[in-house]
Amino acid sequence: MPRDLPLGNGHLLVNFDKSYNLRDIYWPHVGQELHTAGDISHTGIWVDGQFAWLDAPEWRRELLYEKETLITHVTLEHPRLQVRLVCADVVDFDRPILIRRIEVTNLAGQARNVRLFFHYDWHIWNDRDANTVFYYPQQQALIAYKQQGYFLQSGQVGQGEQRVTGVSSWATGVKEVNGAEGTWRDAEDGELGCHPIAQGSVDGTIALHLPIIQAGKSELAYHWLTVGSNLPAVVQLDQLVRERGAEGLLERTRNYWLCWVNKQGQAFADLSPELVDLYKRSLLVLRTQIDAGGAIMAANDADVQHYNNDSYSYMWPRDGALVANALSHAGYGEITRSFFDFCAGVLTEDGYLLHKYNPDRSWGSSWQAWVDDEGKPQLPIQEDETALVIYSLWQHYLCFRDVEFVAPHFRSLIVPAADFLISYREQTTGLPGASFDLWEERRGILAFTNAAVYAGLQAAANFSSFFGEKDLAAKYQAAAEEIKVATIQHFWDEQRGHFVRMLVVEQDGTIRKDATLDSSLCGLFLFGMLSVNDPQLRATMQALEQVLWVKTEVGGMARYENDYYYQVTHDMTQAQGNPWFICTLWLAQYRIACAQSLDALHEALPLLDWVHKHALASGIMAEQVHPFNGEPLSVSPLTWSQAEFVMTIRWYLGKYAHLQGK
């Protein structure tokens, strides 16, 4: 189930699903330590003896964010219960506090008793065992803990002098043992058992009893969760919420994100308000997925189990570099600096980056082997991941000219990485050596990787020239040109009339081509190896659009011919694969790059509108779209998709300004 509403601050990340269930709680690193296993933490309401969980099918629900903030705006109505809930959820912008504000409106013709219930299913430190949950009378709160992880649940009902702080009732208990479902079942009669403590595989539920709600009137309730490494830490945060007021903390976080996403001097040319809103939403969603230590995570969603029960909660250097590039061009240099610091810290002694990393800089899990099928050593890398970090660092420098930041990374990151890119070459062709492709499905010499390595070496040459290292600059520049020439020589297929996506050089020196049309061929112009005016590049792009554009009413660009991943149809005349946000945005970037007039530039707008149409209502972009019904498929949220939209908007605005200045 996708995560429609992520909220975070770089330390604490929480996700709500499409039914408005709280599912994921990550802390202290974004995407690493998951304390709920992705299980449902239920929220429910009791009204005069009737009960409903908020994920029940009877609810009419709308899940959105407040405009230009990381505060939710969720509206729910229940015909039978005759209540309306308007909910605002927020993670404080710099403290590990989740605040939930719920306004309950009584739609019935008489006064009514209402109680709200907040349940948490604990797997602290990714483990269901040896957890404890207990009632803490000093704060009238429920606290769960294991080792150095503490989670305090509290709340408030009423306003002004009638305000009551602390939980009205509570339940602690075991789950997943001897058929026990959890304390959330205890809530369904409107009463909680108030058992003081439970250990092992546990959960906890609190109740907030609202004042009597008159007919047609509303009452407010606040629930908060504070997180810390010990009891005093969570109690101190709880006391802060009580003293400052939950509404005050919500308001200050609202103001923070409004300022953050509205950079001074922004202008959006002739883009529609809908596209501008999605641009800002993409930036905000990206921010939730970035750890305070610099790791830009691919996606954080406990339901995504891929490749042997694994997830997307890792920092892929490629994805991170492309996200960082988009953020740099959008003006967020403070975030991208942390990313480049991270990469410098994990670069191997030989100058390359590995497959993926955890946000604490440890290696992420990987399926990429250190030996080939014959047992011979090979590097388990995607070489574009190393190259694109250097390319993105140069783009960062062009945006901010922060030489004091870049200078220490020249010897620690740029030179060793560039030296590796030069050394890792296939001898027969002079092209980059074999590595895994960006889709992580095949190994060989790849057009996308060639373009990325070319860009990385060009960036290294630029840095070297800037720092007065003329010999290094000449060496890197020469290698980049050699790779460009070899790419054109070996990857162009005269018979087919387009570039091929991959070569494999056999032991006897023969070259085997994989001529599958693959949208990754867009890398040839994305990173500057070939001009969009190059006739061979233009022919390739025409072939890609002709073959990979989905022929159903949904439209959009597929990854490559006969793409198997989540394949919906085997009818290749309709769809070679499911349309991807990333691939469709690459096509938009190509149209923007080609534009020589405003009318030509506007040919990119239908593709941007396509993205807007098929994103979730909350602004989240997944990997791909169902080719027949247009619904998002697979991972959500995916930072790469959000970043490509941001980058495409930056391309559009840059070209618009250029054309206006002609």
From TrEMBL:
Pfam families: Glyco_hydro_15 (PF00723). Residues 381-649 form the GH15-like domain. GO terms for molecular function: hydrolase activity, hydrolyzing O-glycosyl compounds. InterPro entries: 6-hairpin_glycosidase_sf, 6hp_glycosidase-like_sf, GH15-like. GO terms for biological process: carbohydrate metabolic process. The keyword Lipid metabolism does not apply. The keyword Amino-acid biosynthesis does not apply. Keywords: Hydrolase. This is Glycoside hydrolase 15-related protein.
